[in-house]
Amino acid sequence: MATFVVIGAQWGDEGKGKMTDYLAEDANVVVRFQGGNNAGHTVVVGDKEYKLHLIPSGILYEDKLNVLGNGVVIDPKDMLKEINYLKELGVKITAKTLLISDRAHVIMPYHKALDGAIESFRGKKSIGTTGKGIGPCYTDKAERTGIRICDLMNPEVFKEKLMINLEIKNALLTKVYNKEPFKFDEIYNEYLDYADKLREFVCDASVRVYDEIKNNKNILFEGAQGNLLDIDYGTYPYVTSSNTTATGVAAGVGIGPNMIESVVGIAKAYTTRVGEGPFPTELDNELGQYIREKGHEYGVTTGRSRRCGWLDAVILKQAVRVSGVTSFAVTKIDTLAGMESLKICVGYKIGDKIIDYIPASLEDLAKCEPIYEEFQGWDDSVSVARSFDELHPNAKIYLKRIEEITGAKISIVSVGPKRDQTMRVDTL
């Protein structure tokens, strides 16, 4: 048996989709443990490109079981849309390849309406949500008023819970945010139709995943977003509404933490983030724009441009500490090709103090000045390398320094978007 977690080690968008697809070759089961359809993965297989938002990347293999755990929030409409999108591309999706936890919470239309209304109400202090209803859905979960997949499967239970929720949500929408109310019959009938179409995929995912582990199957746990978007250890409040670190796996799937053997942190060779908040190594200049364009740094889900900057090893050290990262997979070193010199942030200076961790206060983080080490660059030959030995010598120095700073090995290096542009450096 091998159980391992794949997480984003930065602010998300590190290339987790490609890495999960790559690692899924050795897995029997791929499990998503948190988040919703507010994140996206792009996976290139041969000459085909797949854009995934909710379904685990292992779905691109015919012999893998893919599971959405109870920690995921599910928009049934978008879920079915994604299923149909993949089917049109020739991907076979059945109850043998995809399962949904009956404990997962359901995103309702009023969640999306509230998401947009609250963001508009915040004005200049908006968090920068995707408007997908993720936050309000997790809010209902914490308030114990949410509707779960098991409720959606029972028309009478769903009816009762929807009526109670609509009474509260319509009052908020109309009296606080001056928005139109939702009609019960329209939502009820629409979601019953979704329930019928999703019913075959629904199960107790905790039991199924546990059984697979006990049967010595290889299990890959896939997260959305990244380490610094974790609701507890991210750059709060500019975070998502769930635990994106590896610690979220146990609660988000329903297994014991002792069942996780290793954690792979996916990290770009530089740093990007979307939305507001401090970004110590940001390159808000022509160089940052160059990286953005060469690396195609635009969101899969929203199309928003990503802010770009030098690699911040302080962030990676936090991923090692908080998520227990046992090895890193470093992506997009090909994007940095052609630069004469590169930098890695190894610490922060805040006033007269030097620190090597991310402070909780965003006001303090905004004052942090990066302490850099400089490295010689490499040429475009990295994109044709198919083993670590074939990499440009300067790229090897850069990668080995990441290992030294973080204390975690680099097990995988990616030099392009295709499957064959990924190389193993060490065993997981």
TrEMBL record:
<feature type="binding site" description="in other chain">
    <location>
        <position position="304"/>
    </location>
    <ligand>
        <name>IMP</name>
    </ligand>
</feature>
<comment type="pathway">
    <text>Purine metabolism; AMP biosynthesis via de novo pathway; AMP from IMP: step 1/2.</text>
</comment>
<dbReference type="InterPro" id="IPR042111">
    <property type="entry name" value="Adenylosuccinate_synth_dom3"/>
</dbReference>
<protein>
    <recommendedName>
        <fullName>Adenylosuccinate synthetase</fullName>
        <ecNumber>6.3.4.4</ecNumber>
    </recommendedName>
</protein>
<keyword id="KW-0658">Purine biosynthesis</keyword>
<feature type="binding site" description="in other chain">
    <location>
        <position position="225"/>
    </location>
    <ligand>
        <name>IMP</name>
    </ligand>
</feature>
<feature type="binding site" description="in other chain">
    <location>
        <position position="240"/>
    </location>
    <ligand>
        <name>IMP</name>
    </ligand>
</feature>
<dbReference type="GO" id="GO:0046040">
    <property type="term" value="P:IMP metabolic process"/>
</dbReference>
<keyword id="KW-0479">Metal-binding</keyword>
<dbReference type="GO" id="GO:0004019">
    <property type="term" value="F:adenylosuccinate synthase activity"/>
</dbReference>
<feature type="active site">
    <location>
        <position position="141"/>
    </location>
</feature>
<dbReference type="GO" id="GO:0044208">
    <property type="term" value="P:'de novo' AMP biosynthetic process"/>
</dbReference>
<feature type="binding site">
    <location>
        <position position="13"/>
    </location>
    <ligand>
        <name>Mg(2+)</name>
    </ligand>
</feature>
<feature type="binding site" description="in other chain">
    <location>
        <position position="130"/>
    </location>
    <ligand>
        <name>IMP</name>
    </ligand>
</feature>
<comment type="subunit">
    <text>Homodimer.</text>
</comment>
<keyword id="KW-0547">Nucleotide-binding</keyword>
<feature type="binding site">
    <location>
        <begin position="414"/>
        <end position="416"/>
    </location>
    <ligand>
        <name>GTP</name>
    </ligand>
</feature>
<feature type="binding site">
    <location>
        <begin position="40"/>
        <end position="42"/>
    </location>
    <ligand>
        <name>GTP</name>
    </ligand>
</feature>
<feature type="binding site">
    <location>
        <begin position="300"/>
        <end position="306"/>
    </location>
    <ligand>
        <name>substrate</name>
    </ligand>
</feature>
<dbReference type="InterPro" id="IPR042109">
    <property type="entry name" value="Adenylosuccinate_synth_dom1"/>
</dbReference>
<dbReference type="GO" id="GO:0005525">
    <property type="term" value="F:GTP binding"/>
</dbReference>
<feature type="binding site">
    <location>
        <begin position="12"/>
        <end position="18"/>
    </location>
    <ligand>
        <name>GTP</name>
    </ligand>
</feature>
<keyword id="KW-0342">GTP-binding</keyword>
<feature type="active site" description="Proton acceptor">
    <location>
        <position position="13"/>
    </location>
</feature>
<dbReference type="InterPro" id="IPR033128">
    <property type="entry name" value="Adenylosuccin_syn_Lys_AS"/>
</dbReference>
<feature type="binding site">
    <location>
        <position position="144"/>
    </location>
    <ligand>
        <name>IMP</name>
    </ligand>
</feature>
<dbReference type="GO" id="GO:0005737">
    <property type="term" value="C:cytoplasm"/>
</dbReference>
<feature type="active site" description="Proton donor">
    <location>
        <position position="41"/>
    </location>
</feature>
<feature type="binding site" description="in other chain">
    <location>
        <begin position="38"/>
        <end position="41"/>
    </location>
    <ligand>
        <name>IMP</name>
    </ligand>
</feature>
<comment type="similarity">
    <text>Belongs to the adenylosuccinate synthetase family.</text>
</comment>
<dbReference type="InterPro" id="IPR001114">
    <property type="entry name" value="Adenylosuccinate_synthetase"/>
</dbReference>
<dbReference type="GO" id="GO:0000287">
    <property type="term" value="F:magnesium ion binding"/>
</dbReference>
<keyword id="KW-0460">Magnesium</keyword>
<dbReference type="Pfam" id="PF00709">
    <property type="entry name" value="Adenylsucc_synt"/>
</dbReference>
<feature type="binding site">
    <location>
        <begin position="332"/>
        <end position="334"/>
    </location>
    <ligand>
        <name>GTP</name>
    </ligand>
</feature>
<dbReference type="InterPro" id="IPR027417">
    <property type="entry name" value="P-loop_NTPase"/>
</dbReference>
<keyword id="KW-0436">Ligase</keyword>
<dbReference type="InterPro" id="IPR018220">
    <property type="entry name" value="Adenylosuccin_syn_GTP-bd"/>
</dbReference>
<dbReference type="InterPro" id="IPR042110">
    <property type="entry name" value="Adenylosuccinate_synth_dom2"/>
</dbReference>
<comment type="function">
    <text>Plays an important role in the de novo pathway of purine nucleotide biosynthesis. Catalyzes the first committed step in the biosynthesis of AMP from IMP.</text>
</comment>
<feature type="binding site" description="in other chain">
    <location>
        <begin position="13"/>
        <end position="16"/>
    </location>
    <ligand>
        <name>IMP</name>
    </ligand>
</feature>
<keyword id="KW-0963">Cytoplasm</keyword>
